[in-house]
Amino acid sequence: MTISVRPDGPVPARIMIVGEAPGENEERVGIPFVGAAGQELDRMLHEAKITRSECFVTNVCRVRPPGNKIDAFMAMRKKDITSQHVVMRDKYVLPVVLEGYELLKKEITLVQPNVIVALGNVALWALTGHWGVTKWRGSLLRVDWDTAGPKVIPSIHPAAVIREWSWRHIVIQDLRRVAANRGSRTYENVPLWKFKIRPDFNTVIETIFSLLALLDGGESLWIDFDLETKLGHIDCAGIAWSPTEALCIPLMSKTNKEGYWNEHEEACVVYFLYKLLTHRNVRVRGQNLLYDSQYTHRHWHFIPRVKQDTMISHHVAFAGLKKSLDFQASLYCQHYVQWKPDKSAWKEGG
User: Fold this and answer.
1) Reported pTM
2) Which pLDDT score, from 0 to 100, does residue 188 have?
């Protein structure tokens, strides 16, 4: 006999929590997140200053999959697809998943949440189309079928936290982000980026000159610095001098074998980068700058005046955590969206 587990919580609710599918305890009681994973979720919500009673809690799939493995309802490999599977988004699922998904969309319309917590891969995928919750967790997203719809902040499923306890404090940090965003459907503190990309020669020189003028005037200035490399060469260099202002300086070009600049222009660009990044008043900051510095030394014959490496700072403070820049950003940035897909597109398109 198929037992459908109903949702639980107030209507309307500012916070909606969406899981994957019910487990044995949920099937027995008829309410989502009441087993060990649910109890741990309640504790983590409490630590993030969220009460379970203020949340509408549901699942994508309302029926317990055999062995609690959602793979039984979703074909993760081509060879697993049968005549019973139907297409949902970009995957093949059994009708019970599609039915739960359609019900979920109706619940969102009814509950009118400001923010939805997507716990696990299936919830993330159903709400946003993305897959890979450990990569996307902490990102400030939205449901992908309505630009005015609720916010979506994905995190790791509490059942996974029980298996990997080191993830617990990361989930709590994500839930704190949820608590901070429950007040409205509008993301606050969205940066107004002022990025200069594909600049002409005058833009690069004028920007660096303006920064040098501040340094020459005695001002101590933090400059964030980053290189992208390809085949042992410097592809582009980026500098930022405020949380919203940055300049990307291309060196290589797919449309011109000789490079983005002519020989004279590139020599000038590199020279003024040298003047900026080694100035007596500059404080250069970046991620894993030992890597970037070996390239500036090998190709440009100088080493930046490094005052902080974010990877080292983070690792010293939290030696057991991941050190990647996107992971750090997911913890520390007020506004964070996973950007790795952008980097993949850049690598493919140049």
Assistant:
1) 0.91
2) 87
The series of mean pLDDT values per 10 residues for the chain, 350 residues long, is 86 98 93 95 98 97 93 92 94 96 97 98 97 96 94 98 96 98 93 95 98 97 97 96 97 89 97 98 98 98 98 95 95 92 58
Distance CA 116, CA 290 (A): 40
Give the Cα separation of 277 and 87 in Å (integer). 53
Inter-residue contact 181 to 151 (CB < 8 Å): yes
Which one-letter amino acid corresponds to residue 141? L
Contact 96, 61 (CB under 8 A): yes
User: CA-to-CA distance for 141 and 337, rounded, in angstroms?
Assistant: 7
> For the chain, which residues make up each domain, given as ranges?
15-180, 194-349
Tokens standing for 319? 């030696």
Partners of residue 225 on adjacent β-strands: 239
CB contact at 8 A, 268 and 254: no
Q: Could you confirm whether domain 15-180 is CATH 3.40.470.10?
A: yes
Q: Is the peptide bond before 12 cis (omega within 30 degrees of 0)?
A: yes
CATH architecture of 194-349: 2-Layer Sandwich (3.30)
